[in-house]
Every structure is written in structure tokens, then in C-alpha cells.
Amino acid sequence: NKGNYEHYMQKEIHEQPESLTTTMRGRLIRGGSCKAKTVLLGGLKDHLKTIRRSRRIVFVGCGTSYNAALAARPILEELSGVPVTMEIASDLVDRQGPIYREDTAVFVSQSGETADTLLAFEYALENGALCVGITNTVGSAIARHTHCGVHINAGAEIGVASTKAYTSQIVVMAMLALAIGGDAISSQARREAIIDGLFDLPNRVREVLKLDHEMKDLAKLLMAEQSLLVFGRGYNYATALEGALKVKEVALMHSEGMLAGEMKHGPLALVDENLPIIVIATRDTCFSKQQSVIQQLHARKGRLIVMCSKGDAASVSPGESCRVIEVPQVEDCLQPVVNIVPLQLLAYHLTVLKGYNVDQPRNLAKSVTTQ
Ligand code: UD1
Ligand code: F6R
Questions:
Q1: Which of 51, 99, 109, 363 is the most buried (most CB within 10 A)?
Q2: DSSP summary character for residue 361
Q3: Distance, CA 153 to ligand 1 centroid (Å)?
Q4: What's the ipTM?
């Protein structure tokens, strides 16, 4: 049921304040006078000790689910102190990469039925790792066969392009980082700030959804382009990859997400006055580096669209020709949840303007159950 919306993708983008609320329901505790703010993930509580003691956490997924894990990686590293590595499911299987008994392998899958992810899971299980699932689908293969896990509870996602599952996956993995981080005194203030940020997140997403019209205008400007680059780094490297994935899969436009730190190592050669480039430069510890990326792209006459925190338009914009997307600022590790929304809206509007099928892009299936 699409309700008042024309497409499932549109509905699922706009219902993110609600889906995020459901994801967090009953799992965040902002205790009374003597109780600290904590996280309770029922599916993991008996396994947290083992996860904390593991030598490594390996995230495994495909497509958008992989990108969600990438967005959560920095906060998991920060709060757990455990090294976190990333594996695209098919690549782990192709390489038969090393997985050990001392590893915790976390399988991220909206459907819980993706063939590549399931094969990687079987491989990790054979190698003795603790296997954790993060899925939207109760009763799916991942949910049933992993040792433990967390349901993201985002509600059924029907549009082939994953939107609300992405943001809920990031929130679950941020909660996972908080749960593994436990009660270390050194990071208590940080953990509490993140928990406050999580409580507030649905409101911030509601606010960023108001950019809908602005993103439609931007889509009109970009709809005839051949290509679109998205530069991000740190917490928002994943946002760059995921924004570009949305644009290519539904709007059928070539788009690449790039790590801004790699710009000078090749991609800079592409820059000219025609190729549109989105630079994500919201406030975090990478901000000044992104400011200098913007300056360098501008010096080469790059056609820039900059995403920045509210109030920062003047400090990021190198000149009149630059378009700015201002988004609400949230706790740095939660910023990817806010920042992806305008890019989801952009991909949606590009697709509708071009007259393509938004909910079922050509050649794609919702659940990829073959290799
Ligand atoms: C569970 C109930 C929820 C109830 C809540 C009350 C289910 C599905 N969830 O939620 O309805 O309101 O208790 O306390 O009945 N699991 C895996 N692999 C996965 C995902 C989950 O093994 O990929 C396991 C978990 O380890 C857990 C169970 O499935 O044992 C349910 O997980 P989850 O729904 O996340 O747990 P709760 O949030 O506690
Ligand atoms: C992108 C998309 C795909 C899926 C990928 C993994 O919008 O939908 O990239 O994310 O096929 O699917 P799940 O998460 O079901 O394992």
C-alpha cells in the first residue's frame, strides 16, 4: 500500500522518521536518576563478551548493506577498540579470504536471503567465526542460521532500491558499537552524546526531508548529464558510495562515489566545467580537509554541489556557481543517516523526471538469490 505516495521508493524515503523510531524502540534506555543512558539489544546480550574478546570484527554484505556497514565502521572501531575489516560478500568467497575462530563476522542483509551473503556466511561458519546477523526480515535464512543478531525492524521494504533499510542498518550498527563499548568510563560522555543523538535523529531526518523540492530542482538541472561524481571521506565515504549507487541503479545514470582522500591519485583528471560533482562537507574532524578539496576542485573549474551543515554555506561555497545543500548537523557518527536522505531524494526525482521505473529498475531484483 503506497498510501498517498506515487511510488514505494518515495514512500519509503519519506517514512524514515517512523522506520528509525521503530528500529530504536525498546532498545535505547535513558534511565532515571541513578541509571545511565544505555543500549539494550536483546539478540546480542548473551554474546557481547565474546564479541568484545574477538580479535577482529569482519563486516560482510553486498550493495547498500555493505555501504551501511562502511558508514558504521568508524564508530565501531572507536567504541570497541577491536579492529574492523570490510568484506564484499562475493569477494570474500572468491578469495577464500582468511576467517578465524577468534573473529566475529557480521552479516548485513536487508532481505536476509542474498545468495552471495549466504555463501560468505557458510564459509565463515565453517571457519569457526562467531556469526552475527543484521537483517530486516524475521525468519530469513540469515536470521535463522546466524548464532545471534539484531532485526532492524524497519518494516517491509518494497522498492528495489534500498532506502529506509540503509538508515535503519546504520542505526542498529551504531547501537551495536554502543553495546560493545559497554560501560568504559573513558567514553561515557561520548556514548551518552550518541544516545541523545539517536533519540533526536527521527526529528532531524524529518527536517532534512523538507529538502524534497530543492532536490527536485537539482534533479531538473542534472537530468541531462551523462555522469555524476560524489566525493566523501571519514563517516561520509559511505554516503558517497551509497548516493552514487542510488543514482546509478534507479536513474540509470553513471555515477561514482569516491574517497576524497584519493582525489589527487587519479579522479582529479576527470574534473572540468561540465562534470557535476557533489562534495559532502558536513562538520566533523574531516571538515577542513573537505574545504581544501572544494578549493582544489574549484581551482580546476569543477562544477560543484556542496553538502554542508546548516549555517555553513558561506564557509564552504567557493563562488556563485556552486550550489549548496544545507543539512541539519547531528552527532558525527550519525551524520550519514541525515546526509543520505537528500541523495535518495535526488535519485528518486532524477528517475521520475527521466520517466524510468523507480520501484523496479531494469535488470534488478529486490532479493538477489542467485550468484
Ligand atoms: C525480541 C522480539 C520482539 C520483542 C522483544 C521483546 C522477535 C523476532 N523479536 O526482540 O518481537 O518485542 O524481543 O523483548 O521475536 N537473531 C539472529 N540473527 C539475526 C537476527 C536475529 O540470530 O540475523 C536472533 C537474535 O539473537 C534473537 C532473536 O533472533 O535471539 C530476535 O532478535 P531481535 O528481534 O533483534 O531481538 P529483540 O530486539 O530482543
Ligand atoms: C541497492 C540494493 C542492493 C542490495 C543488495 C544486498 O539499493 O538494493 O545493492 O542492497 O543486493 O541486498 P540485501 O541487503 O537484501 O542482502
A1: 109
A2: -
A3: 10
A4: 0.99
Phi-psi sector, 182: left (phi>0), alpha (psi -120 to 50), beta = left
Q: Is the pLDDT of residue 34 over 60?
A: no
Q: Check residue 370 and give its pLDDT.
A: 83
- Cα 87 to the center of its chain, rounded Å: 15
Q: Is the CB of 42 under 6 A from ligand 1?
A: yes
- Ligand 1 atom closest to the Cα of residue 27 is 38
Query: How far apart are the C-alpha atoms of 29 and 328, rounded to whole Å?
Result: 24
- Which residues touch 262 (CB under 8 Å, ≥6 apart)? none
223 backbone dihedrals φ, ψ, rounded to 5°: -65, -25
Best residue for ligand 2 mutational test, from 9, 62, 116 (most atoms within 8 Å of Cβ): 62
Residue 201 is predicted with a pLDDT of 98
In terms of phi and psi (left: phi > 0; alpha: psi -120 to 50; beta: otherwise), the region of 342 is alpha
Tell me the pLDDT band of 32, cut-offs 50, 70 and 90: low
Q: Is the CB of 142 under 6 A from ligand 2?
A: no
For residues 342 and 121, what is the distance between their CA atoms, to the nearest angstrom? 33
Q: What is the amino acid identity at position 300?
A: R
What is the rounded distance in angstroms from the CA atom of residue 77 to the CA atom of residue 161?
28
Distances (CA, A) of 335 to 162, 170, 238, 331: 18, 10, 11, 6
How confident is the prediction for the chain on average, in pLDDT?
96
- CA nearest neighbour of 120 among 145, 75, 76, 89: 89
Q: What is the dihedral of CA 243, 238, 68, 57, to 10 degrees?
A: 160
pLDDT, position 81: 93
Q: Which residues lie below 8 Å from residue 46, measured CB to CB, with a gap of 6+?
A: 148
Cα torsion 310, 311, 312, 317: sign? positive
Does the C-beta of 51 come closer than 6 Å to ligand 1?
no
